[in-house]
Amino acid sequence: MTQRAEGERSETEPSGILCDMTGQTGEGTFVTTGWKPSPQVAVEAEQLAGRLGLPYVRRSVGLERLYARTGARFALVVERTQRTLHMRGRRVALRFHGGMGLVRLRHALAGRPDGMLLACDLRPGEVVIDATAGLCGDALLAAHAVGPGGRVIAVEKSPLLAAVVAHGLAHTRLSPHAADAARRRITLVTQDHLAYLAGCPDKSVDLVFFEPMFDAPAARLEEFEILAAVADPSPVREAALREAARVARRRVVLQVHRDSDAVERLGLRPLPVGRSSVTRYGVLDL
Ligand SMILES: C[S@@+](CC[C@H](N)C(=O)[O-])C[C@H]1O[C@@H](n2cnc3c(N)ncnc32)[C@H](O)[C@@H]1O
């Protein structure tokens, strides 16, 4: 496993990704800027496009005109303070703002129980791999739970999502202070989690957490629609779970939709399901 210093983040956007392969839908993406970018932002956008293997399109007209001109479905927009992912026909863009993770962290600070934290039972100083980073909501909670001596390595396969979240983790101040401190303990890695875990030494972290995609009412929000369109929808494979059990010292946790049979199918110990909970957890104690 590549060792990184506390707070150091990688934006390991792999190069050579073809334009029509970035969205899971197979439709194209271009990188552009906001209106009237500074020369520095324009260079940053062009460089990001190069790293992602995507076309850079100068922002001369509105996004809808650019979609029509290029035939693309997604636009990754680079601005001075943020990167946002836009989808044709949607007014809302996907951005990093802490989202539900921030809401849950505020609840946790107020003493409310959180299903993921209960399932993981994290201790100060622990090192966690969040193998399905998404918008890093769970990673934020985990990073809070492990405290200043711990850290979270968040692994995300979608380069578009990772481009937005990596920048957000590095530059977006969160409030309260505990959330901002937690975001600095997260390192984002853009890779398939099976490949990442395969490169980690035995028993090199304390816990590995998985939450694959599933359909939920929240998916009807435009922001989640964009997430779902670019995220990898695959369930967790047995091989990934095996690697996680090799790499973790203490526990592997899987969170799935409450109707999923993945917990039993993968041989995990099911935790009791909350009456109003949309999800359920399975754990493997090591
Ligand atoms: C349900 S979302 C996770 C949400 C996240 N826990 C949060 O709090 O924001 C699942 C994420 O895992 C990613 N993913 C799915 N399979 C993956 C894999 N093999 N390697 C890395 N990331 C993967 C998807 O692209 C998606 O972003």
Structure, explained:
With 286 residues, the chain is an alpha/beta fold. It folds into 2 domains: 19-87, 3-Layer(aba) Sandwich (Rossmann fold); 99-285, 3-Layer(aba) Sandwich (Rossmann fold), CATH 3.40.50. 34% of the residues lie in helices and 19% in strands. It has 11 helices and 10 strands. The strands form 2 sheets. It has a 7-stranded mixed β-sheet. Residues 1-26 have low confidence and may be disordered. S-adenosylmethionine (SAM) is lined by residues 101, 132, 134-138, 155-158, 161, 192-194, 211-213, 231-232, 234.
Which residues form runs of ≥5 with pLDDT under 50? 1-26
State the order of secondary-structure elements, H for helix, E for strand: EHHEEHHEHEHHEHEHHEHEE
Rg over alpha carbons: 19 Å
| Share of β-strand residues | 15-25%
The small molecules bound here are:
S-adenosylmethionine
Per the CATH scheme, the topology name of the largest domain is: Rossmann fold
Find the count of extended strands (DSSP E, 2+ residues): 10
Helix/strand structural class: alpha/beta
Order of strands across the biggest sheet? 6-5-4-7-8-10-9
Supply the number of helical segments: 11
CATH architecture assignment name of the largest domain: 3-Layer(aba) Sandwich
> How far do the termini sit from each other?
20 Å
CATH C-level class of the largest domain is Alpha Beta
